[in-house]
Specification:
Elements lengths: L4 H15 L9 E3 L9 E2 L6 H25 L3 H7 L10 E5 L3 H13 L23 E4 L2 H11 L5 H9 L22 H20 L6 H13 L16 H4 L5 E8 L10 E4 L3 E4 L4 E4 L7 E2 L2 E2 L5 E3 L4 H7 L3 H7 L8 H18 L3 E4 L21 E6 L10 H4 L7 E6 L12 H9 L16 H6 L7 E3 L3 H4 L8 E6 L18 H15 L8 H17 L5 H10 E2 L2
Parallel strand pairs: 3-4, 3-14, 4-5, 14-16, 15-17
Antiparallel strand pairs: 1-11, 2-8, 5-6, 5-13, 6-7, 7-8, 9-10, 12-13, 15-16
The structure holds 2-acetamido-2-deoxy-beta-D-glucopyranose (12 copies).
């Protein structure tokens, strides 16, 4: 069925009016500021008090789990006793990082993550990896990887296994229903339902704009994604509400971090990276952080401009989801080549043109750091004199793995499991570009405070097939002593075809249930390297304790040494 564009515009407006209310849950809310409102913004580095307290709580949970996991995979129990003794005040901490790459990254990443989850079927005991996720402290996601981490976190830390079971017993109510394109979620047969969905989204955005907040096309994508990743959509799902969810408050899940970067049309190497965590939004590079619950408030010199005009609910989880997924900037440009037809295409063209033209494409955030004293070197970011910050996909500078937050020395991470599901080769496999980009960043002034292990450039990476197997980067700490500090060991796990052709296009916006399960299953196989090494879980365990052994000057066992011979890359 085909409608004329003026008819569609009229229908959209009509539908919008019929769903509109005086306010919508998506709209940020003006509240009076808390009495300590000058502490909503901090200009010091290090962990926030909230994070420090939370991590202490998490450590008490993860340390026994980690010790018990490692003892089921490693022979040298005396080493584990030393590492986990009360005398050792820095126990091993682990983190997971999931790269960008739209639904490909989300689904493959889900499979990889499930390989470390003890809630996955038949995934515990000797030789298995299940339990390491339960023993982890941080989980960072970027773009498609962030869709995964956010969706799991905000659905009560649901397991990938449970999502898979829902799909298998499909009765039309599964989470991650991406059978139809996000652009036409009800399928071509039901254009009216699509129209109503978009009309509701349109109303939400209009209300936010009418309330005086900057809006952009990112609101549109963020809301649309929300319907796929959260039960009942997410116009009222607030990022900071995670603080109050039992599973997070009790530290029964890892600390999630999402990244985005400052829009910089000219120069990418000096681009500022921002993180969203359950407590704060900010940048390590600029040592500036703001209480995330009050994001959207106008600040000057670190205090609210008007103490009766603080803002809540700006930190909508869907909006943050959309911010980290700049892919859709490209979708908007490519709309003619996506095979959309008829009404759906028209609806989108109208929506895109109505939000893109006014405010440009990047997501606008009132800048909490506005007016603070300028830094001697702000790396050209102007972070203290822009009233609004424009944020884009964290991968736009090539760093599609969200390493920067995990490299911070204060977070004391010993091993990062890095899932690389980027598509940089001609056949859409990863090439190690994201590792190299982070490695190169430390040589720039803006990267002076981070350290990252040596990695080869993408040419060598691909030549040596490092993108086709699990590789440990940064084993030899002696070699790293010239860096700013000894960085975490990186356990690199690339997307590779084992049971399913998982090199799908970033622009594939719908997956059948069969494809979805195929991607997840292949990701699981990739994390295990298709079970080709019976010592694999042992070797992964050796990687987890290596930094602690180096700190305590314990020589790795022969068992671990042979793992390092197999898995470590040496410059
Ligand atoms: C402000 O004070 C309240 C109550 O004393 C406290 O719960 C909150 O954490 C403080 N906020 C900041 C940003 O310090
Ligand atoms: C997974 O690990 C957690 C923490 O150790 C434990 O409470 C839970 O029972 C385990 N679940 C399974 C299915 O093994
Ligand atoms: C649909 O499936 C889910 C997951 O298996 C289940 O929890 C739910 O009760 C089912 N709904 C109906 C209506 O059968
Ligand atoms: C996905 O959503 C579509 C449209 O609402 C529906 O027809 C389909 O049954 C759903 N599939 C699953 C697996 O829930
Ligand atoms: C602060 O906002 C209130 C409305 O909430 C307004 O009446 C007042 O004039 C504002 N104060 C300043 C200094 O702008
Ligand atoms: C990055 O910023 C620093 C400091 O402002 C400057 O010296 C350097 O040349 C910039 N790097 C690039 C590649 O522009
Ligand atoms: C910072 O301001 C300068 C001068 O106005 C401008 O050229 C540059 O693009 C700005 N940088 C960013 C990241 O906005
Ligand atoms: C996926 O990879 C296979 C082999 O590596 C290649 O033949 C195929 O063309 C790739 N698919 C895409 C979409 O590039
Ligand atoms: C990649 O690294 C190799 C080995 O260091 C070097 O020979 C080659 O020139 C580099 N290639 C690029 C494109 O920088
Ligand atoms: C680590 O690197 C140093 C310096 O190159 C070298 O002497 C040492 O043998 C290396 N250690 C291992 C275990 O490979
Ligand atoms: C991975 O393992 C599966 C099942 O054992 C096998 O069918 C498949 O061929 C293997 N894939 C590769 C690339 O070896
Ligand atoms: C570790 O223990 C297992 C089972 O007890 C044994 O098969 C294996 O050979 C041992 N490995 C080493 C290096 O001693």
């Amino acid at each position: 069925m085909q409608y004329s564009s003026s008819l569609i515009t009229a229908l959209l407006l009509l539908a919008s009016n019929s769903v509109s209310a005086a306010t919508s849950a998506y709209q940020p809310e003006v509240v009076s500021c808390p009495s300590n409102s000058s502490s909503l913004v901090r200009t010091s580095g290090g962990l926030s008090t909230d994070e420090t307290e939370w991590v202490t709580k998490r450590d008490a949970i993860t340390e026994p789990i980690l010790k018990s996991y490692l003892s089921s995979q490693l022979n040298s129990t005396s080493t584990l006793d030393k590492i986990f003794s009360d005398d050792n005040d820095q126990k091993p901490k682990i983190a997971f990082a999931v790269s960008g790459g739209s639904y490909r990254a989300m689904l493959s990443g889900a499979g990889m993550l499930s390989a470390f989850d003890n809630r996955t079927d038949d995934n515990t005991g000797s030789g298995k990896l299940g339990g390491l996720l339960q023993a982890s402290t941080y989980l960072a996601g970027l773009s498609g990887g962030n869709w995964l981490t956010t969706s799991l976190a905000f659905n009560d830390w649901i397991s990938v296994q449970e999502v898979v079971d829902q799909v298998k017993n499909s009765n039309g109510s599964s989470l991650w229903n991406i059978t139809n394109s996000i652009l036409a979620p009800f399928g071509a047969e039901e254009p009216m339902n699509d129209l109503l969905r978009w009309a509701k989204i349109r109303t939400d955005i209009q209300n936010k704009e009418d309330a005086g907040f900057p809006v952009s096309i990112v609101d549109l994508w963020g809301l649309a994604l929300s319907y796929q990743f959260f039960e009942n959509g997410a116009e009222n799902l607030i990022w900071s509400s995670l603080q109050k969810s039992d599973v997070f408050a009790n530290a029964e899940m890892p600390f999630i971090i999402s990244t985005a970067e400052q829009y910089n049309a000219v120069e990418t190497i000096n681009t500022t990276i921002f993180e969203f965590n359950p407590f704060e939004f900010g940048s390590w590079e600029h040592e500036k952080f703001a209480n995330i619950e009050y994001l959207g408030t106008s600040f000057k010199d670190g205090s609210p401009v008007n103490s009766t005009q603080c803002v809540n609910n700006f930190d909508n989880a869907g909006y943050i989801l959309g911010t980290s997924a700049g892919l859709f900037n490209l979708v908007a440009e490519k709309i003619d080549s996506l095979g959309l037809t008829g009404t759906t295409k028209e609806i989108l063209e109208i929506l895109i043109s109505s939000w893109a033209s006014e405010n440009g494409i990047p997501a606008a955030y009132p800048n909490p750091f506005y007016g603070l004293e300028a830094e001697s070197n702000d790396f050209g970011s102007n972070i203290t004199y822009l009233e609004d910050l424009y944020l884009v996909d964290g991968g736009e500078d090539g760093e599609t793995l969200p390493f920067v937050p995990l490299l911070q020395e204060e977070r004391e991470i010993d091993a990062i499991f890095a899932f690389d599901i980027d598509a940089n080769t001609d056949e859409l496999w990863p090439s190690g570009l994201s590792l190299y980009a982070t490695y190169a960043r430390q040589a720039q002034p803006i990267g002076a405070d981070i350290a990252f292990p040596f990695v080869p450039n993408t040419t060598v990476f691909v030549e040596e097939s490092l993108n086709e197997k699990t590789v440990f980067f940064g084993c030899n700490a002696t070699l790293l002593s010239e860096l700013a500090y000894i960085p975490p060991l990186v356990v690199y796990i690339p997307n590779k075809e084992y049971t399913f052709a998982s090199n799908t296009s970033t622009f594939q916006l719908s997956y059948t249930d069969k494809e979805k399960l195929g991607m997840i299953e292949n990701g699981y196989a990739a994390a295990y390297q298709n079970n080709t090494d019976s010592d694999y879980a042992t070797c992964i365990s050796c990687a987890v304790i290596l930094r602690a052994q180096q700190r305590l000057d314990i020589t790795p066992s022969a068992e671990c040494q042979s793992c390092f011979d197999n898995y470590c890359w040496s410059p």
